[in-house]
Specification:
The complex is a heterodimer of chains A (169) and B (420). Chain A has helices at 18-21, 32-36, 47-50, 71-78, 91-100, 108-113, 145-153, 156-168, and strands at residues 4-11, 56-58, 83-86, 104-106, 119-123, 128-131, 136-139. By secondary structure, chain A is of the alpha/beta class. Chain A has a seven-stranded mixed beta sheet with strand order 4-3-2-1-5-6-7. In chain A, strand 5 and strand 6 (128-131) form a beta hairpin. Chain A starts with a strand and ends with a helix. Chain B has 420 residues and is α/β, with parallel strands linked by helices. Helix content of chain B is 30%, strand content 18%. Chain B has helices spanning 5-14, 38-48, 73-88, 103-109, 141-150, 175-186, 208-216, 232-238, 299-302, 305-315, 333-341, 344-351, 401-410, and strands at 24-28, 31-35, 60-63, 93-95, 118-121, 135-138, 152-156, 160-166, 195-199, 225-227, 259-264, 271-273, 281-283, 294-298, 325-329, 354-355, 376-379, 395-398. In chain B, the strands form five sheets. Chain B has a five-stranded parallel beta sheet, covered by helices on one side. A five-stranded parallel beta sheet of chain B has the order 16-15-14-17-18. In chain B, strands 10-9-8-11 form a four-stranded parallel beta sheet, covered by helices on one side. Chain B starts with a helix and ends in a 10-residue tail after the last helix. Classes of the chains: A alpha/beta (169), B alpha/beta (420). Chains A and B meet through helix 4, helix 5 and helix 8 of A and helix 2, helix 3 and helix 5 of B.
């Protein structure tokens, strides 16, 4: 299955932590839509008003640092974001994103050159990020097969289900 | 290929003779942990994906510590989800209000984690158990759900940074100052995707509480885990707590480290992390005049008995400054009881401190000490991000129990080494 997404960019800086992605004061909320209404609100109150399905989030270094709350990638995904690009990701955020099926890419050049509002296309098979606004392209390391399988299955649990199905077949 | 201590534990749990950094592996787990915030998400995913059986009811721990005792109706319902799951699946290690402590203080104390084990927890400070010579790391709720089903987790094998400790700490300097100093040196992403392996002659001079505190905050420089070698101090701590065989792993003498950092413990001073990142460190003599409104002593970082002792010694015969609220959170019920028996509780209350049952509440701005706009807090917790303890315009300064207690008395960030 070919994986490709396209959308407009929401841009943030270094060390975007999970407390600003989704503040702890909302962690008593179980409903995903209700939670997503607070995504990024402490650093960007306009995000939830402007985000459109397919949009792309771009951060700097150490994106998603702090608490292990999976609510963070969950609200980003629920907001309609199709991919997060950053120079680097905090390790728990990285695995959480893959585990819930939120595509993420590490690409230093992309996070330096892409500006807020740019229109960007991403090909996950090649790792090529095309900036349609600026007419540039940048290359990220594509996912290893193991991780691609998890994302394509729709997350870790779905991939375990698939594997268990295969094993018992 | 020579391996680090972390790599050896991971290789053993993956059933592989050797592994190398970057390799994707699947390992067997000795414990899967969750709490009242991350547990319900994992439980919903567990059932939602159509699973109905856990891999081992003895190897799953659920601790109701974050918004418990229940802060509101929604929090109460999250605890109900966990409670029902624990009952239905006969979980051995379910800790509810009355017996619960802050998870990372409770699990080592109760001997639920031990040297050489491979542990995941849906809480970023799960790395605390590296103090015992275990591989333990924070994950998300989906990893927790998958771990509960399969008893396994996937990992990318980490490279490691060696932190070589020499000397011993001066009075009024603790493990908290060591880890804050290290984060200040390498930054909040200085150990991203890597292990922090603490080594050197200085390790023997650190108490178990110091090591637990240092391992706990290893995540604050991005580390996957922080780990200490197992020595006489570790073994004597585990004695009487851990009632099963455990394995001691050692790094190979020629293990590869991406870098080596040397820290002379005897040169460290009380250190404070300024808002809004743990890497913004200043030694106490560089702090200047910073008036404060609140002090929090406790959490999974500094709710240990040694922190309670240090605070009690500073509060003895003193009063909390009239402009300050000081709230103390012992890490576990046992530590709370010890505080009563040792007379610390009387000292705290006579000094004008409030003492709470164990909870994570204030550390993440949940309840029991939320800050208003413009308020400043000295906290022995582990994060000072924007809005972490309440309003986005509040400020958190991270420090040891010693600095926090001295600051509570003076009404401003203060050096615990200075009398009067």
């Amino acid at each position: 299955m070919h994986m490709e997404v396209k959308g407009s960019v929401h841009k943030y800086g270094n060390n975007v932590d999970t407390d600003v992605i989704i503040p702890a004061r909302y962690l008593n909320i179980a409903d995903k839509k209700e939670l997503a209404a607070h995504c990024m609100e402490d650093i960007d109150p306009t995000f939830v008003k402007t985000v459109k399905p397919g949009d792309i989030m771009v951060g700097g270094q150490n994106f998603g640092c702090g608490s292990s709350r999976e609510h963070a990638p969950m609200v980003i995904l629920e907001s309609g974001i199709s991919c997060v690009i950053a120079g680097s990701f905090a390790h728990i955020f990285y695995r959480n994103s893959i585990n819930i099926g939120l595509p993420i890419l590490e690409c230093q050049e992309a996070c330096e050159k892409i500006d807020a509002g740019d229109n960007v296309k991403i090909d996950f098979d090649t790792g090529i990020i095309t900036n349609l606004t600026k007419g540039e392209s940048y290359t990220a390391e594509p996912f290893p097969e193991f991780i691609k399988e998890i994302i394509q299955a729709g997350g870790l649990l779905a991939s375990i289900k698939l594997r268990q199905g295969r094993d018992s077949a | 290929m020579p391996m680090t201590m972390t790599q050896k534990i991971l290789a053993a749990h993956a059933g592989l003779p050797e592994i190398h950094p970057g390799q994707l592996i699947s390992t067997k787990l000795d414990l899967v942990l969750g709490n009242d915030i991350t547990g319900p998400v994992a439980i919903r995913e567990f059932y939602g994906a159509g699973f109905d059986k856990v891999f081992d009811p003895d190897k799953i721990a659920l601790v109701m510590d974050h918004f418990a005792p229940n802060k509101d109706i929604k929090a109460a319902e999250q605890c109900v989800t966990c409670r029902e799951f624990a009952k239905k699946h006969n979980l051995t290690h379910f800790y509810d209000v009355g017996v619960m402590g802050i998870e990372h203080a409770l699990l080592p104390e109760q001997g639920i984690v031990a040297a050489g084990e491979c542990i995941i927890g849906a809480d970023s400070h799960t790395c605390t158990y590296g103090a015992l010579g275990a591989f333990s790391t924070g994950v998300g709720s989906t990893d927790m759900a998958a771990g509960m089903v399969t008893g396994e987790a996937w990992f990318r094998v980490p490279d490691a940074i060696q932190v070589k400790l020499t000397g011993s700490l001066q009075p009024m300097v603790s493990g908290k100052d060591v880890i804050i100093h290290l984060i200040g040196m390498i930054g909040v992403d200085g150990a991203l995707y890597q292990s922090l392996e603490y080594t050197g002659d200085g390790v023997a001079n650190l108490t178990m509480d110091d090591r637990l505190c240092i391992a706990n905050m290893s995540i604050e420089c991005g580390a996957k885990n922080g780990i200490f070698p197992v020595d006489a101090v570790t073994e004597s701590y585990m004695q009487g707590r851990v009632n099963r065989p455990y394995t001691i792993y050692e790094a190979d003498a020629d293990a590869h480290y991406s870098r080596t950092i040397e820290i002379d413990l005897s040169a460290l001073k009380p250190t404070v992390s300024f808002p809004h990142l743990p890497e913004n460190t200043k030694t106490i003599d560089e702090v200047g005049e910073i008036p404060i409104n609140q002090v929090i002593i406790g959490s999974c970082t500094n709710g240990w008995l040694s922190d309670m002792k240090a605070a009690a010694e500073i509060f003895a015969g003193q009063k909390v400054h009239p402009d300050v609220r000081c709230i103390i959170f012992p890490g576990t019920q046992q530590i709370y009881l010890d505080c009563i028996e040792l007379g610390y509780m009387k000292t705290f209350i006579q000094a004008g401190c409030a003492v709470s049952t164990p909870t994570c509440g204030p550390c993440l701005g949940g309840h029991m000490g939320v800050l208003a706009a413009g308020e400043r807090c000295v906290a022995t917790t582990n994060r000072n991000f924007v809005g972490r303890m309440g309003h986005v315009d509040s400020e958190v300064y991270l420090a040891s129990a010693q600095v926090a207690a001295a600051s509570a008395i003076k009404g401003k960030i203060s050096d615990p080494r200075k009398k009067g």
